[in-house]
Each structure stands twice: as C-alpha cells, then as structure tokens.
C-alpha cells in the first residue's frame, strides 16, 4: 500500500502519485487542473485546507483515496 500524509502539500502528493490529481479534481477541487495552480498554491495547500476551502467533506476524499489503495497518515 502507498502511504500519504494529509500534512504534505498537494504539490508533493501529486508529484509522488499523479493519480491523486484526478481524484481531487473529480471530488470538487477543480482548481488543481488550472495551469500554474499546482506549482504555486499547491506548494503550500494541503488536502484538508483545500477541502475546507471548497466545502468538500474531507472524509469523502479520504475514503476515495483509501479505495485506490492509499493508506492515510494524518
């Protein structure tokens, strides 16, 4: 299983596991695919911060990532 930390930046997570980008986009974090956003804002944005900003239930994101075989470290 692949382990990811919710304290890591979105940029770090997507760089290590590109498939995460599609999951986050599909769950409502649409800005992740806007050109330049991942390399700028993504460097300090975490999944919990992004979920709160976009009013997406963090548990839904965690559940989806776990279904894809990720172990979540909080």
UniProtKB/TrEMBL annotation:
InterPro entries: DUF1858 (IPR015077), ScdA-like_N_sf (IPR038062). Residues 5-60 form the DUF1858 domain. Pfam families: DUF1858. Signal peptide: none annotated. SUPFAM superfamilies: SP0561-like. This is DUF1858 domain-containing protein. The lineage of its organism: Bacteria, Bacillati, Bacillota, Bacilli, Lactobacillales.
């Amino acid at each position: 299983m692949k382990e990811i930390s919710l304290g890591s930046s979105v940029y770090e997570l997507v760089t290590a596991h590109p498939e995460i980008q599609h999951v986050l986009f599909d769950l409502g974090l649409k800005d992740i695919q806007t050109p330049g956003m991942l390399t700028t804002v993504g460097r300090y944005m975490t999944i919990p911060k992004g979920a709160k900003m976009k009013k997406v239930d963090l548990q839904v994101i965690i559940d989806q990532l776990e279904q894809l075989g990720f172990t979540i470290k909080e």
